[in-house]
Specification:
Blueprint (H helix, E strand, L loop, with lengths): L2 E4 L6 H4 L7 E6 L3 E7 L2 E9 L5 E5 L8 H14 L4 E4 L15 E2 L13 E6 L5 H9 L3 E6 L3 H13 L5 E4 L3 H4 L8 E7 L15 H10 E11 L2 H12 L4 E7 L8 H8 L5 E7 L32 E3 L2 E11 L2 E10 L2 E10 L2 E4 L8 H13 L3
Parallel strand pairs: 7-10, 8-9, 8-11, 9-10, 11-12
Antiparallel strand pairs: 1-5, 1-6, 2-3, 3-4, 4-5, 12-14, 13-14, 15-16, 16-17, 17-18, 18-19
Bound molecules: S-adenosylmethionine (SAM).
């Protein structure tokens, strides 16, 4: 995570620096401080916090991070330079090769809003890790588009490098939480969904990729007679998934033990050396699914409030029918507030900042992922801001 540690400095000098006025749009003050940045066409936040030795840590904010983390590093370096800060430690000048490659095959979650694939054959791999399987599939089926979604940025970067080396043009890489993507895809569009060796999350089952809603969405986006392929070495995950699948009507479920695939990932090879059993659970959708509404508008209308709105927002999580809203933290800015919130469905929460400035309310950097649950939460948020 890009950051620098510097000797204590007066934060007010940020506002008097002429070099920074073009990129710093607001200061948000709370227990720590956030800077609203606009840089090279991207909007994100930089966090400044005091550590236990009274030094200051300037770091990137995970929730608002841009796809290209290099931009964050640039801005931290610009701030250090403009304010002539006394740097104690830094990791922003290292790792020159580790950043995400700019590539036409790297897609943002926003690129999937209202996407249609037409006649194109499309498959999805969730959590591709080293990318060995998706690369193999893409090489074998050059006429099919493989969408790989992976939450771990270095793995996404690694796959983009391989796409370039192997001169492939049929893989899209998405560096995001897979649980949010499916709801954005059209019905009856995919030929396969691969979920190979998902993290078992035995202690935090709500973080598992496979869930009732993931299955429902998989069935909706799969073409009839096409399948979701779960491969796992975890007994617990296997039984958990079977139970989830058996609860669902109108699907066929097949189980195969220790099936050989044409390609073995590093992860799988480790279990094989230990003679561990590997289970495939193949779920086939039997019916054509109906289309769903995917065109949601996340702008805030009907806003009417006065500061101090902050005191009126509930401190506890608010649970509604199928979704929740949690106002995590608020910061004061000139003429408004910046609010950090978590909301949406329980097993796929969204984390966002909402900026309220001069009576205009908007999400920082981008709207939530376009799902019906997020939209319901958005409508409820409008009610909170219309007081
Ligand atoms: C155990 S590894 C398996 C990797 C690869 N599929 C294989 O067979 O070697 C699980 C992968 O899933 C990714 N992952 C975990 N949760 C995810 C999520 N919610 N969305 C996307 N990827 C996720 C992890 O980053 C990790 O790379």
């Amino acid at each position: 995570m890009p950051h620098i540690k510097v000797k204590p400095f007066n934060l007010d000098t940020i506002e008097s620096s002429s070099q920074l006025t073009n990129i710093i749009k607001f200061r948000a003050k709370g227990d720590d401080e956030l800077l609203g940045i606009e840089y090279k066409g991207e909007e994100f936040l930089i966090n400044i916090k005091q550590d236990s030795h009274n030094n200051m840590v300037i770091k990137y904010d995970k929730v608002s991070r841009p796809l290209n983390v290099e931009l964050v590093k640039d801005v931290i370096a610009l701030i250090a330079d403009a304010l002539d800060l006394d740097i104690i430690s830094s990791n922003i000048y290292s790792n020159a090769n580790a950043h995400t490659l700019p590539s036409q095959y790297l897609k943002k979650i926003k690129d999937f809003e209202n996407i249609e694939f037409g006649d194109k054959k499309v498959a999805l791999e969730v959590g591709f890790g080293s990318g060995k399987h998706i690369l193999y599939q893409a090489n074998c089926n050059r006429d099919k588009l493989y969408i790989g979604i992976e939450i771990h940025t270095p793995s996404a970067t690694q796959l983009l490098k391989q796409i370039k080396i192997q001169e492939l043009d049929n893989i899209w890489v998405v560096n995001y939480d897979a649980r949010l993507l499916l709801e954005m895809l059209p019905s009856n569009a995919l030929e396969e969904i691969f979920v190979h060796f998902p993290v078992p999350w035995d202690k935090k089952p709500h973080r598992r990729v496979i869930s009732k809603s993931f299955l429902e969405e998989s069935i909706r986006v799969l073409k009839p007679s096409h399948r979701l392929e779960l491969r796992t070495d975890s007994d617990k995950y296997f039984w958990y998934s079977l139970e989830t699948f058996f609860d669902y009507p109108k699907i066929s479920v097949d189980v195969i033990k220790n099936r050989d695939l044409e390609v073995v990932s590093k992860y799988e090879a480790r279990w094989r050396r230990q003679n561990k059993d590997i289970y495939d659970v193949l779920v086939t959708s039997d019916e054509l699914s109906s289309d769903i509404d995917r065109d949601f508008n996340f702008t805030f209308n009907n806003i009417n409030f006065d500061i101090p709105l902050k005191d009126k927002l509930p401190k506890e999580s608010q649970i509604f029918d199928g979704y929740f809203i949690h106002f995590e933290r608020s910061y004061y800015i000139d003429n408004g507030l910046l609010i950090k919130i978590a909301f949406g469905s329980f097993d796929r929460p969204e984390h966002k900042y909402i900026l309220i400035e001069n009576n205009i309310v908007r999400y920082i950097s981008s709207s939530p992922v376009s799902t019906s649950t997020n939209y319901k939460a958005h409508q409820k948020l409008e009610e909170y801001f219309n007081v």
